[in-house]
Design goal:
Blueprint lengths: L4 E7 L6 H13 L4 E4 L6 H9 L4 E4 L16 E2 L3 E5 L2 E5 L12 E3 L6 E6 L2 E6 L10 E9 L2 E9 L7 E6 L3
Parallel strand pairs: 1-2, 2-3, 3-4, 6-7, 7-9
Antiparallel strand pairs: 1-10, 5-6, 8-9, 10-11, 11-12
């Protein structure tokens, strides 16, 4: 039986920073992302269109600043939180506000805090990719999650908004 391998790009809190949103998506694609997940606060329909134009399958949840996007439900894969879905055999729960943090999926993704965090609770990954918008700190951030047979490796990607190259920090857990 072959190993299941997936690369998932995760981002959150783009807010009104369209150029940073585009840069994060382009970067995740250049790193081999096969799926894109956005944990809310997109704010602009243009940000949904950029995700769509990536050509990758993507899923988003509404953030607390996304009320203007609610009428677009059904036109884009953007959902009320918490949203449960699967990528291959991987069960994912995604939300913006970190209110539904129960360990009832293989991967639990949140946003809102604007701070990167990756932790394992048993075999379950809890991930906040940080902020794309560089509002709370002078960093734009996103994450790439590599999953091989439900074992996780998270790469935190970050840079100052004006910088051309991304810094990375790899996080792996041994069982």
């Amino acid at each position: 039986m072959s190993k299941q391998k997936i690369k998932i790009g995760v981002l959150s809190d783009s807010h009104r920073k369209t150029q940073l949103h585009q840069e994060a998506i382009d970067h995740l694609i250049s790193c081999g992302a096969e799926y894109l997940l956005h944990a809310g606060d997109l704010e602009y329909v243009e940000h949904l269109k950029i995700l769509e134009a990536s050509g990758l399958p993507y899923v988003c949840v509404y953030g607390n600043n996304d009320t203007s996007l609610i009428p677009l439900y059904g036109q884009y894969p953007i959902y009320k939180e918490p949203h449960y879905f699967k990528i291959q055999d991987l069960k994912i729960k995604m939300m913006h506000m970190p209110y539904y943090m129960s360990a009832d999926a293989d991967m639990v993704i949140s946003g809102h805090t604007h701070y990167f965090e990756a932790n394992m609770n048993g075999e379950i990954l809890f991930l906040n990719p940080g902020e794309v918008c560089a509002r709370n700190k002078n960093l734009t951030e996103c994450s790439l999650v590599e999953v091989v047979d439900k074992k996780f490796k998270v790469t935190h990607h970050f840079k100052e908004p004006e910088a051309k190259t991304w810094n990375i920090r790899n996080i792996e857990w041994s069982n």
